[in-house]
Structure to design on (148 residues):
């Protein structure tokens, strides 16, 4: 009996379990990061920026950031904890990562000036890339169409 030709796909650790939340729950900002900032200090700069940007204390937020090495800014995304429902939090009990849906495209090779449009059943999200990576993300809800 021979090994499956797809054995190489099963080699190594399993991929992380990711739970994607609706983009509309999150607000985003590009936070300038000095070029000489060590990667270990980026998280503290993000927290300081969130304290000045968010109308809520950082402890009341679910947040994260995307910072590719050498970028001049970190893309910060945050959601007010009370906007996330109990049903949504139940879904991520087994998850290794919890992210907004647009995070699946962060790190994709996008040319400067490119705008991607993500369509969801209830919203549209636009991700605009500059030379150093995504710098603007906009989400707008879609109006429900009913047959009258």
């Amino acid at each position: 009996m021979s090994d499956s030709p797809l054995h190489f796909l099963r080699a190594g650790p399993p991929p992380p379990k990711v739970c994607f939340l609706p983009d509309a729950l999150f607000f985003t900002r590009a936070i300038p990061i000095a070029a000489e900032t060590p990667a270990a200090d980026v998280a503290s700069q993000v927290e300081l920026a969130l304290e000045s940007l968010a109308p809520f204390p950082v402890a009341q937020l679910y947040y994260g950031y995307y910072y590719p090495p050498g970028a001049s800014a970190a893309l910060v995304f945050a959601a007010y904890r009370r906007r996330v429902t109990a049903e949504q939090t139940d879904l991520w009990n087994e998850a290794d990562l919890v992210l907004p849906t647009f995070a699946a495209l962060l790190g994709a090779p996008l040319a400067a000036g490119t705008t991607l449009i993500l369509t969801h059943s209830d919203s549209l999200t636009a991700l605009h890339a500059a030379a150093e990576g995504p710098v603007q993300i906009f989400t707008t809800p879609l109006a429900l169409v009913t047959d009258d």
